[in-house]
């Protein structure tokens, strides 16, 4: 019996109203009830004392029903259309801010279907939060509570974006990598913007407080940026996808550029054109490289040499390392440290110079070339995206210069020119120092400094001859530092009669590397002699 | 405000109680109606009519203490109306065709119903339901689908409890016969092949 009724019942329970049928039925029923309401006296039944009160109030409503409906309609329209529009401009602390973040933005989030669009939208929300915080900070309204709120929101959006990227990675590795690059470059911009805002107003006590108040936020954004850039560097997008993305974004940049050209000043236009040219060069190199053009390979070889001579000490020199270093590290990353070490230990540059010569013989494997191509394209994409943000976001433009955001990538010629200009300056200083009547107090330092300077310049000459620009740049930077120090030591001391004046104009006119090198060597050799005279 | 709200929870306005009954019983009523008339749309309509009729009853000043039996009663009447409209063969005619005898005394006992039910396959029986004469279908559904006791069914159908018990018993017998019949047919088919 039990089994029978159970089976029977179970079977029967498969029969039920569908949700639509049920909803439909309920609607029919409630409208029936509306058109056939209970008579007033029926409502007051069941002997509950408050019922009279209830019936009175409901009667009043039923009289003005048409009005109420009209008003309700207008109100609903306002709530649905008006409030979100007004709320878009709200900042933390405004009444409508919750509407903006919790309703309008959430609705948009739920409307974005593709995971890529979702990550983009989360990134934009993060940018919005940072922009709001900065707006409040400049108005002096950023309280610690609000900042904590913003920081929390930043964290949430970061998580959401990273979640999106992670889920994307399961289906489409390339797309995920692309999203990662976009996210990382957006974060770089935000962190630059925050730094810009902080640097902008250190004047009054008031603004110091303000500046401090976004310090926390800046710290968080920097953290996110670092994390994102590491993650971004770890991903391996395919060449085709990356190139396609770079190209579509570049098209967008050019469109944007056309539209802003009319309002932008000459300088701005030049600046942007310069960045576009940089990006274009990177893309061309990458394409050539991918197509196995020998010219591009030679070029890259020299770049790899530069990079490795900067980054890898002699003992760890391995081809695999080279590829990794190239892919992972930005050129400027270790420049500062390199300068200081060079200053402290005069032997280092020489050693590095030898490394560079050794590296030159390394033959590029396919893997290395590929890694470098990707790294180039990645850089190009980051650059393009930063440009887009720079051009579209007035807020960013106000707080950051384009140079801070996207430093110019110099061509070899430009780099050589810069080195030569700097060299001229150093040589001038050197010549000046030679004329100084050195006192005993500073003699030791000056002699040592001059020797160091001579070594740097010698190495510089060699590097220039080998077209190892990175090393040469480092040498000249070290030389400049030493020269500056020497000048400071000797600036108060009396000068001797001008004996070497002839040297200076010749050096200044010099454009040729080899000649210049000779000159600098000559000058170097003369330093001890000069000192002897002083003694 | 708070006080009033709490009272509403206990007693409830007529509208609230009515809508609550709808939420609670609409599925069961629909199931019953669908099994009886085997037409989804018409079953939904019958359920709708049931509720509007009950609402009208409330409007007219009647109190309903318990919605369930009342709803079943109205539904049942409406289903019978449906049958009349469809002009289906009368119960007697059906019984003659199936050749079922008048019941004996042991059919009145609940125990025999249980032992009879134990011999039946619930799933197969359920599939047979559609082909059953409505008099039996009605009680079987009320008992095994809606889970009403013989007493409740008796009140609902305005019959004595005895009559209800006999009907359930016979209904089960009919079901068994039908299942056996079907199995025989199936066996015959296989045999022919």
What is the compact description of this entry?
With 535 residues, chain A is mostly helical.
Largest β sheet strand count, sense and barrel closure of chain B: none
DSSP, total strands of chain B: 0
Distance, first to last CA of chain A: 124 Å
Query: From the alpha-carbon coordinates, what is the Rg of chain B to the nearest angstrom?
Result: 20 Å
Rounded average pLDDT of chain A:
69
Structure description:
- The complex is a heterodimer of chains A (535) and B (193).
- Chain A is built from 25 helices and no strands.
- Chain A has helices spanning 2-12, 19-35, 40-43, 51-63, 65-87, 97-111, 115-138, 144-171, 173-200, 205-213, 215-234, 239-261, 266-290, 294-311, 319-328, 335-344, 347-359, 366-392, 394-399, 402-405, 412-434, 440-465, 469-490, 503-509, 513-534.
- In chain A, 33% of the residues are buried.
- Chain B folds into 2 domains: 2-86, Rna Polymerase Sigma Factor, Chain: A, CATH 1.10.1740; 91-192, Orthogonal Bundle (Arc Repressor Mutant, subunit A), CATH 1.10.10.10.
- In chain B, helix 2 runs parallel beside helix 4 (67-86), helix 2 packs across helix 8 and helix 3 packs across helix 4.
- The termini of chain B are far apart.
- The model of chain B is unreliable at 1-10 and 96-103 (pLDDT under 50).
- Classes of the chains: A mainly alpha (535), B mainly alpha (193).
- The A-B interface holds A 1, 3-13, 15-17, 21-22, 24-26, 28-30, 32-33, 36, 38-39, 42-43, 45-46, 48, 50, 53-54 and B 3-4, 7, 11, 13-15, 18-19, 22, 26-27, 30-31, 34-35, 44, 47-48, 51-52, 55-56, 58-59, 61, 63, 113-115, 117-118, 120-123, 125-126, 141, 144-145, 147.
């Amino acid at each position: 019996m039990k089994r029978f009724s159970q089976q029977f019942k179970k079977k029967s329970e498969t029969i039920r109203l569908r949700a639509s049928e049920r909803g439909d039925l309920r609607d029919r029923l409630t409208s029936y009830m509306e058109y056939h309401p209970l008579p007033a006296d029926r409502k007051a039944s069941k002997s509950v004392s408050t019922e009279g009160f209830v019936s009175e109030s409901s009667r009043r409503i039923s009289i003005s029903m048409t009005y109420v409906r009209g008003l309700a309609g207008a109100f609903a329209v306002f709530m649905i259309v008006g409030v979100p529009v007004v709320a878009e401009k709200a900042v933390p602390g405004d009444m409508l801010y919750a509407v903006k973040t919790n309703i309008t933005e959430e609705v948009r989030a739920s409307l974005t279907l593709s995971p890529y669009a979702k990550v983009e939208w989360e990134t934009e929300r993060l940018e919005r939060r940072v922009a709001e915080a900065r707006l409040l900070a400049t108005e002096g309204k950023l309280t610690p509570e609000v900042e904590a709120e913003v920081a929390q929101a930043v964290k949430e959006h970061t998580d959401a974006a990273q979640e999106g990227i992670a889920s994307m990675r399961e289906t489409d590795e390339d797309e995920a990598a692309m999203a990662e690059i976009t996210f990382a470059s957006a974060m770089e911009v935000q962190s630059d913007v925050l730094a810009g805002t902080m640097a902008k107003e250190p004047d009054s006590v008031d603004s110091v407080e303000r500046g401090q108040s976004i310090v926390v936020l800046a710290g968080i954004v920097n953290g996110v940026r670092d994390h994102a850039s590491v993650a971004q560097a770890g991903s391996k997008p395919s060449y085709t996808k990356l190139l396609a993305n770079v190209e579509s974004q570049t098209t967008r940049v050019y469109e944007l550029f056309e539209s802003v050209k009319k309002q932008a000043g000459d300088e701005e236009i030049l600046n942007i054109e310069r960045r576009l040219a940089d990006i274009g060069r990177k893309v061309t190199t990458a394409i050539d490289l991918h197509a196995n053009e020998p010219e591009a390979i030679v070029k890259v070889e020299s770049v790899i040499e530069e990079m490795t001579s900067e980054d890898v000490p002699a003992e760890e020199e391995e081809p695999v390392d080279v590829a990794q270093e190239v892919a992972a590290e930005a050129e400027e990353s270790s420049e500062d440290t390199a300068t200081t070490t060079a200053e402290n230990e005069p032997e280092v540059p020489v050693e590095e110079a030898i490394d560079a010569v050794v590296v030159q013989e390394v033959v590029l494997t396919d893997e290395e070339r590929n890694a470098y191509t990707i790294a180039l394209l990645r850089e190009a994409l980051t650059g393009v995206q930063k440009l887009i943000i720079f051009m579209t976001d007035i807020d960013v433009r106000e707080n950051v210069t384009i140079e801070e955001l996207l430093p110019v990538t110099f061509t070899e010629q430009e780099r050589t020119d810069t080195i030569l200009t700097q060299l001229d300056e150093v040589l001038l200083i050197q010549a000046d120092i030679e004329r100084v009547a050195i006192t005993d107090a500073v003699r030791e330092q000056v002699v040592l400094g001059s020797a160091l300077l001579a070594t740097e310049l010698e190495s510089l000459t060699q590097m220039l001859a080998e077209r190892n620009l990175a090393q040469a740049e480092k040498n000249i930077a070290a030389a400049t530092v030493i020269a500056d120090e020497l000048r400071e030591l000797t600036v108060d001391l009396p000068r001797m009669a001008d004996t070497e004046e002839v040297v200076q104009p010749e050096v200044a006119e010099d454009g040729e590397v080899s000649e210049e090198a000779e000159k600098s060597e000559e000058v170097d050799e003369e330093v001890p002699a000069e000192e002897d005279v002083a003694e | 405000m708070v006080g009033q709200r709490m009272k509403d929870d206990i007693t409830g306005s007529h509208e609230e109680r009515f809508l609550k009954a709808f939420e609670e019983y609409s599925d069961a009523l629909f199931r019953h109606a669908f099994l009886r008339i085997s037409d989804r749309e018409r079953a939904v309509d019958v359920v709708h009519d049931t509720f509007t009729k009950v609402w009208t009853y409330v409007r007219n000043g009647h109190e309903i203490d318990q919605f369930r039996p009342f709803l079943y009663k109205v539904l049942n009447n409406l289903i019978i109306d449906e049958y009349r409209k469809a002009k289906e063969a009368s119960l007697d005619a059906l019984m003659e065709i199936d050749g079922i005898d008048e019941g004996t005394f042991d059919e009145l006992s609940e125990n025999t119903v249980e032992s009879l039910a134990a011999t039946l396959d619930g799933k197969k029986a359920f599939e047979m339901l559609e082909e059953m004469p409505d008099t039996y279908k009605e009680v079987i559904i009320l008992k095994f689908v809606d889970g009403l006791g013989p007493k409740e069914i008796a009140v609902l159908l305005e019959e004595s409890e005895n009559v209800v018990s006999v009907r359930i018993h016979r209904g089960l017998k009919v079901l068994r016969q039908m299942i056996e019949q079907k199995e025989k047919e199936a066996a015959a088919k296989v045999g022919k092949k």
